Amino acid sequence: MIVKLMGSGFLKVIRMSTKRLYLVILMLAIGCQQAGIGKEAPVAAKNGTPATKELAPQWKVNKDALDKGSIDAATVMLFHGDPTARKILLDVLKDAKNSVARIAVCKAFIKARLSKEEIKNTDDFIQPLLGVFSTEIHEESQLAAEAMLIFGYDKIGQSLEDITTDDLKPVKMRINAVNALKLRPDMGATISLISLVDDSDKQVSAEAEKALRSLGIPVGENSYERWQNINELRGKGVDEFQRDWIIRQEAQMGNLRKKVEVWQNKYLLALGRIYDGISDDAARGDFLKEHLGSSEARVKLLALDKVYKWQFASGKPKLPAELEPILLHLISDPDKEVKKKTLGLYILRRMDSVEPLLAQLESESDEQVKIELLDALGGACSNALSVKPARITPEIRKKALGVAVKFLSEEDTGKARKGAEVLRKLLEPNGLKQEELEVYLGLFVERYNQQKEKPDSALRGELLSAMADLCTPTPGSASRFKAAQLFKPLFVEALSDKTDFVRETAVDGLIYIDKAAALKRLRKYVDDPSEILRKKVIGVAGDVGGKEDLAWLVEKIGSNSESGPAWQAMLKILDGSDSATLNEWMDKLITQASQIKLSDQQKIAFLKKAEAKAAGETKMLKTVRKKLAELYGKTGQFERTAEYLNMLYKAAPTAREKEVILPKLLDACLKGSKVELAAELVRECLVKEDLSPDNAVLISISDYLSKPSGADPNIVVKALVGVKLSKARPKWQQWLKGWTDRLSKSEEAEKPKEAVKAKKA
Question: Distance (Å, rounded) from C-alpha 241 to C-alpha 230?
Fold first, then answer.
């Protein structure tokens, strides 16, 4: 219901506006010819007697328009000095049958009062406007009351009071006059309203009481209290009365605004729910099309919010094409927030919006909106220039470049920053002549040099950032080579700037131009006060650094947020180093005596690289795998532990070395659930001989079965029982029987406990 009511209201406004526009066009077409036409003498009849004067053509046009309700026609005649125009208006006010025209005249008065334009001989209209109060049409009387606010109360107060107290006047006329008194911030009007509460006519009395309550003025319980209230008002004086009146009105306006806000929010919530309940994309598009064209700013903002969400919604097709002209129209909307919301839409940058944005920039008066417009223009130009063929002409591109240059030269840092950003976007793509490109790039240098001695270091950083981006090795960039030539000296100079942001962006520029050359220069800045800058240097060292950078990178390990990036950079460098370098750094990084506190995972990462480099170097490979086995065991990665111990076991050159490795390998197999490998290792031992009680293999298995932490003991014993042997091994069989019996007894002991638990459950 709310939606219907407000929607119909909006349509009514639109129809009224259309009608008014038609009449204005009509008047302009006819033109005001008063200046070219002199005063006409009365037309004489043949017998010499004056004939009835006909209206001049221009006044006839205006009267015809006024009869149709044209406020503009009424306004033209109200301010014109011609007596004919004045008479037309006075006659209309006296004509009770021409309600439409009377309403238009009253509205013209209201408009004149608000604009504070002077009307000559206004007193001519007092009695005709008072006469309108005899109408039965509420809108007429209400507008007449508002129109009469152009007169001071000293001029019309007595006349209004006379009407309200005249028992011979129609009740409706008296009530209309009461409502006129209500609009008056005057002590006399308020006293009259209080007195009228005791009027003999109940309708007049009720209307006066209603008026007082609407003004927040106490009515009083009886005539005596009202008499006291009147005396109290007279005692306050005019100034205090008017101050109190303003305070009451402001309070009431505040309450009304709150109520309006509540209903607006309810309406917007209802609209949002209606939209969210629409599943069909075409229907959603129709909804947005309708409400983006609303006359209400808040409704347009709601629709724009839905557009914003649609453009990023996954699985949704692109916005309906019919919304594009509507969105382009909204960049010139009268409401500032609607413009800003529209300009923030990403989809706007993908439309053919460059020319409309340029046009709006030329006419826009709000400085904040101008910046938003320029930002949108930059995105639209960048998008239009990125396709082949480009969707904007060279002439439009130059026009946009001119706007960006103008902003770049502004003293306002926000404008200059945005100008630099847009200029960068316009220069990156191909299409400009080399001499033109050099001129525009030179403007960056000029603006930066102007800014060097100024306190706003943020703009220096932003300018350097835009210049750095122009040096980026982007495919299709026409500006990179020349930009590097022009900007490199500025980047080098900026490394000594006291502002972190300026130094940081200078580093970006040098890196974009040449990483290797940049690293040579930046090694002296590895301890710069800026953490961001230090990380940038670490990053470039990882990309193009060599073993000479490992020494300063390793010092960053363990130092807050730089530790991780420094380690990653070291790994990149080590990845490209020879085995000798990795062997050297293995002693520094992995040994117990190392001062560099790497995590176990970092040590493993290093050793994996060392393992890859150590292929063919037996001694180094053995050391690396031994350390990896230890670290995997320490970190609980027993499967990997078993894998590396098995490599060491197979590669061991002597039986003695194998004997040392075997128990550890067997334990890792059981903890890592590599039961088959464990069984195979036991089989190899039994092939050689039976196992005595002090055998390391038996001790390892027995210890595991006592405190299992990996493979299921039953699975382990089952796998060991399944070992096939060609010769009898009685001692081994005794061990198997003992382990089997122990597991059986353990299972039997668990059954009563489980039964008790089941019974309780």
Answer: 12
- Which tops the pLDDT comparison, 385 or 42? 385
CA-CA distance, 590 to 588, in Å (whole number)? 6
Contacts of 301 (CB under 8 A, 6+ apart): 337, 338, 341
Closest CA to 297 of 264, 266, 325: 264
pLDDT value at residue 120: 84
Q: What residues have CB less than 8 Å from 549, skipping those under 6 apart?
A: 519, 523, 541, 569, 573
* Cross-strand bridge partners of residue 44: 50
Structure tokens at 729: 């091994």
Distance CA 380, CA 474 (A): 19
Q: How far apart are CA 586 and CA 584, in angstroms?
A: 5
Amino acid present at 527: D
Q: 104-126 pLDDT, tens per residue?
A: 999 999 998 888 888 888 888 99
Domains belonging to the chain, first-starting first, are: 2-33+54-256 (1.25.10), 636-760 (no CATH)
**Does 556 have pLDDT greater than 80?**
yes
Give the pLDDT confidence of 129-185 residue by residue, as tens digits: 999 999 999 999 999 999 999 898 889 889 999 999 999 999 999 999 999 998 888
Q: Output b/e per residue, 712-747; b: 16+ Cβ within 10 A.
A: ebeebbebbeebeeeeebeebeebeeebeeebeeee
Cα atoms in the Cβ-side hemisphere of radius 13 Å centred on 315: 2
